[in-house]
Queue: 3 jobs
Job 1
Amino acid sequence: MRCSKCMAETGSNRRRFCAKCGSPLPSRCSACSFDNEPSAKFCGGCGKSLGETAATISSAAFSPPRVDIAERRQLTVMFCDLVGSTAMAARLDPEDLREVIRAYHKCVAETVGQYDGFVARYMGDGVLVYFGYPQAHEDDAERAVRAGLAQTEAIHHLRTSERIQIRIGIATGVVVVGELAGSGEAREWDIVGETPNLAARLQALAEPNAVVIGPTTRQLIGNLFEYRDLGAVELKGFAESVQPYQVLRPSAMESRFEALRSETTPVVGRGAELALLMRRWQHAKAGEGRVVLISGEPGIGKSRLTAALSHTIRCEPHTRLRYFCSPYPGRRSNSPSRGCVTSAARPSIWPPGRWVPPSALGSSRWLQKLDCRRCTPFASFRLRGD
């Protein structure tokens, strides 16, 4: 290409100005090689946008090579399915059915979001949810089960033209998660392994508005919930039988330490700390108020130390009040006191075989059955709560 003013050879087609005189150079179309005016936006030879062709060449030349990113990790997978969706599709107009499914999808997404679940895919009347990806927590299995129970309660109160029910299956295991196929909007991130298949099979075993979990999930969540053993069952595609459990409700155990661990393990290397706590206890018994703060890294033994203190003074008269904060975002500031009221009222108002959420305590029907004498120590917290 030559400069039209000084006739100097420019050498490269990528230059926009002449290196000899600084004059604007013609814009050569990359598609048909036609030389256009410097100010032209479209090629006079083929009509294509000069900026579009340049951007296409630039992106093709400088785009980084595609890297297949996949990682191996333990994941808890939830599979949620809408009960009777085929019969519902035959009854309802497609637009009405769309509104029902949209409300169902929105309800599931909002509920699992409260427990940091990740909605991986909507499959018509089914929803696939990951707990532990992309963000992992130490209690992902527990989060999945709590989200499942919350979903069954939320669906019960969902206002749609049709009364809907769901089935939920939850399984935990090692998978490989990464990009499988597709490009652009069709690109999908999926998991490979036995766990999603097990969650789907467990969902098929569940009754309407019930949550069924696998044996690995059951082992991880300990006694945090109450269960019904469904017995060993043969599942399609699995060589060995599987022991599923139906989750009924959260258990009455207040402490996560008691629910997940055993106090039979001896306390080792904490003699000095336990002796310090006993001295503070003796001061408190003598009328000298004491406050002790136990802090440390997770898993260092804080809860085990307090359990050892409670066991040591078990025969001495005292009143123990325990309050536990919620690890989940978006919870109310009075959740510790709400938990204590729920636990204190549970034996007197809980109907057998049915899970009643803590929010039900606000209804007049449950308050009429509430044993106020059991909840007196928590009254001041309730008065200040929202």
Job 2
Amino acid sequence: MVFVFNPFTGTLDNIIKDHGELDGLTDNDHIQYVNAVASAPLTLSSQSITFNYDTDYFQLSGNNLQIKDIYVRNTGDQINGTLTIDETNTSAFIVRRDSEGTIIFTVDTANQTVNIFGEQHVYNHIYAEDDPMYLYDTSDNELLAFDTVASAINYLSFANGSLGNGPEINALGDDTNIDIELIPKGTGGIVCGGSGVSIFQEAIVINEGGNDQDTRIEGDTDANLFYIDAGNNRVGIGMSNPAQKFDVTGNINLSGELMGCRCLLPFNRTSITADAYLGAAAMAFTSTTGYLMHRAGSIVGISIVTTTTDTSSGTIICHAYKNGASVYSVTITTTGSGTYEASGTQARGTDTFVAGDTIVAYVDFGTFTGTAAPVGAIIEVVFDT
């Protein structure tokens, strides 16, 4: 074991070795102490060096003794007990592969850091004295923080994966059922796969980026138990190609009402030769006698069909009347005898009604003169609830 030190009173580096000379050095460059006796001191100014072969120690003592380097080179060389190093402006302790080789480990007392330049193998626990404990990147920015909870019994386990298997994040601990909690800050969220999936604190948003990527949930025996066709904006139950906004293969069981249902109100007359209200079956309707609405909704469609035997041409207008006033209509243009029909639709909420309103179909002959026989009409309504 070689100690290289600089006494403040000396002018040369003095190297002490327990036996033999150092290669390349002369007697003027080092102090050689051979065949030492027990506790025999060698004094350099205010410093003393003691070799004690009986108790197997090598001691440097004195005031302002500055050790420059310590080399542990030879087989059997070792430092037993406590090595206390105190320095204020440089690295106080360095471990190299050899005296001239790559630095593996340093203690920088000036910056209060320990630097490890090789692989690190941990065979026991790592304890965090500060809470939280941070891992930093090369720019000294926080990369990962570890928080502790008093009396914690549950924790996360990270496992890599073999060929064909992905890595895992597992919840472990003393509890039987353990959630994995991901808690964003403020109104932020957790984004998986870029903008494809965002999971927020109180709601789940799938396909936030609006990509044409379908979502499918499998059942035990149904591969398309729930299918979202993103490209066509449709939802299928039991199918992968829904044809409507909501398409179901299989039976539907409802314990309550199917809200917002559409209803067709039929009207007819056997024959008319002038303006008239159409009735239902054998009952004639009037401006105040018709279908009484039992809940609020909208008129969304109307259609009429009739046959004429007259050769004259003209227009026949079919109105949807609410409480005796026209709110929506379609027109037939006749060009002689024959069967004519017309229909129209409009958006929900355009012409609305409330509970207690009366809806009836009214035929206005317009420019038509003759007989329409028979005449049938339908008014389509959709209820709000």
Job 3
Amino acid sequence: MKKIFFSILLLFSLGSLGLIFAKQSPKRVYFKKGRTEISLPGYLKSGKDAANYLARAAKARRQTISVSAVAGNPAESQPPDIYGYFFIQGKAPVGFADIDHINLGGSGEYGAGAKPPYYGQIRLKNKAQTDYKLLKPTFNGKNFSFKTKSVNGVSYEFNGTFIRLDFIEKELQDTPVLSGTLKKIKAGKAIAQGKVNFTWELGD
């Protein structure tokens, strides 16, 4: 049977490849059959200057490659470290008046970096203080969305945009920082839906 993959050993000492794998061991990259390009994370001049590189198998059978930097810094595409407590600004839409706050865990050791990871939760105002744990949120620039786990057949979904991302650094409280559509889901159907703005507090 023909091998589906072929590999190329990228040597630390070869020109621009040395920039990619500075402070790293040589890498063996696998190309699927018919594929001639693969994206590689690496560095420019130091571990602080991250970049994406594109490895092209110029002559796959001879295992020769060319490597070039791809515009853009992958560090810039990393999800922002957003944490704290978010409160619905003003009067909550119908169906959401019982929400006390949304907590986001951020990317640190007590958030996404914890074992198991903690992404956050929606807490209700009821006596039991019911929590709806967030599944892994999605960031795309300022766009932000999440879904929660189900509790007694009910879950929540949110799709929106951060109005600004410097609110933690500047400690901007009592001003809207997140806007979007919040849904309450039951049996796969939205039983409540509304546009909401959230203010932010750091909390304890």
